[in-house]
Amino acid sequence: MFRLRLSLAFAVLVALVCIQAVFVYWGSNRVNDYAQHSRLASDILSELLELSTSKQRLRVWASQQLMDANASPEVRDSQLARMQASAETLRNLARRDLSLWGEISAREGVPIPPEVDQLVSVSELLNDNIASVRARLLRLAPLERGAEFASVWQELNEVFDMARGRDLRELINGAIERQRKAMPVARAATERGLDQLRQQAVALAALTLAAAIVLALYLNRRLQRPLDRLLEGTQALQAGALEHRIALRSRDEFGRVAEHFNAMAAELQRHRSDADAARRRLEDAVLERTSELSAAHETLQQVDQRRRQLLADLSHELRTPATAIRGEAEIALRGADRPSAEYRETLTRIVGGVKQLTGVIDDLLLIARAEADQLAMRFGTVDLSELLGDATEMAGTLGARHNVRVQLEAPRADLPAVTLQADADRLRQALVIVLDNAVRYSRNGGAVRVSWQRVDGRVQVAVADEGIGIDADELPQVFDRFVRGRRARLHRADGTGIGLSIAQAIVQAHQGRIGIESIPQQGTTVRIELPCHLPIRTQET
């Protein structure tokens, strides 16, 4: 739409310029015609005067010839030639003037002046007159004595002045007079034409200028507002305000530009939103990764701390029996010979220390094999009640030393006997580990109760004590290797923290689960769930 308006504005300016050019061209032609007429009038007057002068000179030559005053034929011939040339020039000028007046008459609708046609007639009569004059002068001879001059001179004047029965002198004099009057008229017409041309040019130039100013103001008003809005939009985008939109107030080219601008701003805003979302996701990922790394770092620190604690505990656990063995051996070797009974007692204590040391080493080997999934199992049919009775009896011996009662609660009479496919020694070891912890971390005079029941095709064994309990924040780590809780370390300094790890590995090897529930200062309950029927499989060591 705006392109059409701009094209129309330029078309109006071009039309005005073309109109001005047409008027200038028409006016210049008109002025040129009047100027040519003025020049022709001047040239015709000059030729008429030249013709009159030549004829007057021929009259003088004729009078000299009559009086035999040595009139030169060369003078006569030259004047006749000049008259002939002037007549020919006058005839051409008269025809040109007639043709020019024909164009002026056709253009302006004015009649051709009659004197123009008369001048053409005079120019045609001049040829006949010049021929008559030439013939008469060629026959002219000096007068004889006694001849009458007046009659001859009158006859010569008639030859000079008459042509086709018309008085040529009167025609020429009239033509001269008319040309003298026509010259100022032609000059005035030329000046008027120039003034009109000047006025027309100035008027058309003023009209064109006014039209250009009006169109410029109109286009400026039409351009300024949309350009200001576009500039405002670009500045807003430069400032980062991608939500800025240009109001669509027209359907012209600026409206389409505004529409494309808004689409570009929306696309940029979408890309920025995507970039912000990607940046936030990256930041979240970095934070998450940082948290993971921090957690991993803390875990590594905890592992390192547990490793240090393990090394200290292992050093203590290994050093204690080794020191005892070394001490018993040094005492036995020191001094004189002793009775065999004392040596036997010493060797018995050494064997006990070796057993303790071997137990710690066996526990470490069991954990290593469990990590490598190489824990050896010999499955067979095991009676659950008998297995629990053996483990409870073994734990009861330890409980007697710590004044802790270990009780096996009998199942209901209506429950049938339960047999398992299990490695009796390994499963007994796991139960003894759980019972040992329950006894060691119970208070003096406390009780440890062992019970079992069937739940959904599985057997659940529960070992409950009335001991020191475990803090809630430490429950998730009780099965971690070499981990001992705060209460455990305060209650009992020795210990490696690998017992429950061994028990968990054994239970999981039997496709079972083990879990702990504890309340600080009230007690802990360990539950072991085993399937009632396990496939028989044997693993060789």
The fraction of residues assigned to DSSP E strands is: 5-15%
Question: What can be said about the biggest beta sheet?
Answer: 5 strands, mixed
Order of helices and strands: HHHHEEHHHEHEEHEEHHEE
Helix percent band: 55-70%
State the strand order across the main sheet: 4-6-7-9-8
User: Can you count the helices?
Assistant: 11
| Apparent shape | rod-shaped
Total strand segments: 9
Task: Supply Rg.
Answer: 73 Å
Spans of at least 5 consecutive residues with low confidence: 534-541
Mean pLDDT score: 79
Structural class of the helices, strands and pairings? alpha+beta
Q: Alpha-carbon distance between the termini?
A: 95 Å
Description:
- Helix 1 (2-66) packs antiparallel against helix 2, helix 3 packs across helix 5 and helix 6 (253-333) runs antiparallel to helix 7 (340-371).
- 70% of the residues lie in helices and 9% in strands.
- It has helices at residues 2-66, 73-108, 114-139, 149-161, 168-238, 253-333, 340-371, 384-401, 424-440, 486-491, 499-509; strands at residues 162-163, 166-167, 380-383, 405-408, 419-422, 447-455, 458-464, 513-519, 523-531.
- The protein has a five-stranded mixed β-sheet with strand order 4-6-7-9-8.
Provide tags for this entry:
alpha+beta, 541 residues, 9% strand, rod-shaped, disordered C terminus, two-stranded antiparallel ribbon, 9 strands
Helix-strand layout with pairing:
Blueprint: H1 2-66, H2 73-108, H3 114-139, H4 149-161, E1 162-163, E2 166-167, H5 168-238, H6 253-333, H7 340-371, E3 380-383, H8 384-401, E4 405-408, E5 419-422, H9 424-440, E6 447-455, E7 458-464, H10 486-491, H11 499-509, E8 513-519, E9 523-531
Parallel strand pairs: 4-6
Antiparallel strand pairs: 1-2, 3-5, 6-7, 7-9, 8-9
Helix pairs in contact: 1-2, 1-4, 1-5, 2-3, 3-4, 3-5, 5-6, 6-7, 7-11, 8-9, 9-11
